[in-house]
Task: structure prediction
Amino acid sequence: MWKQSVDYLIYDLLKLEGHLGEAINFFIYDTFKIWFLLITIIFAVSYLRTHFNTEYVRAHLQGKSQLYGNVLAALFGIITPFCSCSAIPLFLGFIQARIPIGVTFSFLISSPMNNEIAIALLFGLFGWKVTAIYIGFGLLVAIVGGFVIGRLHMEKYVLMDVKPIEGELEAVKIKLTMQERATEAYNYTRDIFKEIYLYVLVGVGIGALIHGYIPADFIAEYAGAENSFAVLIAVLMGIPMYSNAAGVMPLVEVLTAKGMLLGTALSFMMAVTALSLPEALILKKILHIKLIATFFGIVGLGIITIGYLFNFIL
Result:
């Protein structure tokens, strides 16, 4: 019904046709669709998150095996709507709590790549099957990447003198009424939406231009099934960029509609969200370049592998 209303506005009332009409139609329809998905799902996940807090997770990770910690940290990333840079303070908090470095990297990888914003948009644009496969592969990259970094014993490359927390952390659960949880979820959703709605506008705007003006044959030629290096190129192009899932997802939607294979498009999205030059510059202040290079190399290789697997499966 919403799509029909937008079509009526653009083509019947405003009498817009051709490339301009297609671009504006795409921009209006996708902007409000994505905003609706974001508000609905972020609120639902935010409400669920009020049942426990970061201190509880950090306390629970203490003393656990590394692989268990990698899995739990990666899963925790799903409910933390951080971009690659804003996840770093919590990453430092994990180090301060004496949690193994490999486990902290599992969180740093998973949080920007697998958070509820990405899940909400994927589900709305591509359905549950693609969303489930993406989450599974994203968690696999985070778990394996963190596990490998942990096995390399690179703690000596943490440059910042992080003072350990004295004593043991207490796993304190949050006790709130239903009304308090709903209010907190509403406030959290409002704050997150304020931070990302402009990313959505920019992302959809770029997507609208591609949708309306770039021929499908052009995308298919350079990033379609015939180009065996498409995934590698997509990842290398994504790393210098900096955005969150809300900003890059509209591009994924329009690129796949124009002929780019879904695995190639999603590998581009993973590279943009999980790896970025601003993130590397911030990490340079606290980590040695060898550890940063290892982190980018392992995650980049994992994303490339996942991109090809995605293309093979779908």
Summary: The mean pLDDT is 76. The radius of gyration is 20 Å. The chain has 15 helices and no strands. Residues 2-313 form one domain.
